[in-house]
What we know:
By secondary structure, this protein is of the alpha+beta class. 24% of the residues lie in helices and 33% in strands. It has five helices and nine strands, in the order E-H-H-E-E-E-E-E-E-H-E-E-H-H. Strands 1, 2, 3, 4, 5, 6, 7, 8 and 9 form a nine-stranded antiparallel beta sheet that branches. The longest helix is centred in the C-terminal third of the chain and has 23 residues.
Amino acid sequence: MNKIVLDEADLASRAKDIRTLLSPIAKVATGPATKTRSTPGTFIIATYDGSLPQSDFRDWRFKVYVNNMSAGYFEVWKDPERKGKWHLEKAYLHIYTMVPELRDEKEFLCLHCDPNESEEDKHYFYKVGPHIHIKQADSPIPHSHIALNRSHLPEVLSSIDTLTKAFSLGVNMIKEQVLDALLI
């Protein structure tokens, strides 16, 4: 399988694509704000609303258009050889619902992609492309990888553009089939 690899210059422009990707579900029409974080060999792009969070990027949130719900999105890119060739490790969208009585949030639904998953992993074909986790369900459903593109993984994983398109279709499916239904 092809791995998703970007040059440093292309990686720098990825934030705009992420805002566009998430705009269908964001409360703000232009999509959430993005910020990058990096360490040697790792580059992270994450989303948020309001003031720039100081916490771990996995805890950053942006509001979705459904009341009492928020989301978080991040991508983790790795350059193991430090040659300016960045490999997408994770693209994760998490949607949360507020639990007012607990004054806390609960994970509701996730759209993940792990394009550099090892082919040796028994869940490889389900995890490598966009897949859904239904978090508010009985076990084993929350840990199941419900693949959206299993039948055409080589095409989906052929470039960042085709992967973004497939992920975008997943975001729109969540919008139309789940979030819109919550407004009724």
